Amino acid sequence: MARDTRERLLTTARDLVHASTYADVGVDDVCRAARVNKGSLYHFFPSKQALGLAVLDRNWELMCALLDQTLGVQGPPLDRLDAFLAGYASMMRTMREHLGVVPGCPLGNLAAELSAHEPVMRARITEVLAAWSDRIADVVREAQARGDVEPTLDATSAARAVVACIQGYSVLAKAEDDPEALDPLRPLVRTLLLLPR
User: Fold this and answer.
1) Backbone conformation region of residue 40, classed left if phi is above 0, alpha if psi is from -120 to 50, else beta
2) How far is CA 162 from CA 25, 38, 67, 192, in A?
């Protein structure tokens, strides 16, 4: 029962934050939407920041699941990266159906909103984005080992550029409320990785 309550609070908070912003969502909003009293919320999350960190970590768990599903399989590395980008676009379409709008990248939104104001959140966001870049960099190195990507390309910098492209196109998809704005990502990333240096 307690586990169900915590999960309901976390899922509700995540949905509310994605449909709005972290700053606009109050503890009362979460409790009302989850049909849970404040005492129960504070039992699991001693502060709004603790709840925000839990939302961030849940977003990263979901992103890791997509990364594992697409990058952690057999096959040519660039094809697996294509699969990740396709899966990411599909995730945005699903979120639009669920929330009624394209919310943008759940991780990128929190990074943009909180990095200047919440040092604890900023530190965790930095770790998450670095871990995401590391996963992409591993794929770039595999592609280099196969001869699919220029060996002189710095894999870490390339991976950061890929994550930056994902974030930028996510902002466009959010602004246009159109998940199809993400469609150019796959050919763009291919071009980015295959351009001679």
Assistant:
1) alpha
2) 30, 41, 14, 8
The DSSP code for 182 is: G
User: For 109-138, how does the pLDDT look when each residue is reduced to its tens digit (9 = 90+)?
Assistant: 988 888 777 889 889 999 999 999 999 999
Closest CA to 43 of 84, 14, 1: 1
Q: Please count the other Cβ atoms lying within 10 Å of the Cβ belonging to residue 168.
A: 14
Q: Cα-Cα-Cα-Cα dihedral of 107, 113, 117, 123, to 10°?
A: 10
- Give the 3-state secondary structure of 68-122: HHHHCCCCCHHHHHHHHHHHHHHHHHHHHHHHCCCCCCHHHHHHHHHCCCCHHHH
Residue 108 has pLDDT above 50, yes or no: yes
Upper half-sphere CA count for residue 121 (Cβ side, 13 Å): 24
pTM of the model: 0.90
Say what percent of the chain tops pLDDT 90: 79
Mean pLDDT value across the chain: 92
Query: Coil, helix or strand for 24?
Result: coil
Task: Report d(CA 140, CA 107) in Å as an integer.
Answer: 22
Q: What is the DSSP string of 157-170?
A: HHHHHHHHHHHHHH
CA–CA distance, 34 with 10 (Å, rounded to integer): 9
Within 8 A by CB and 6+ apart from 57, the residues are: 124
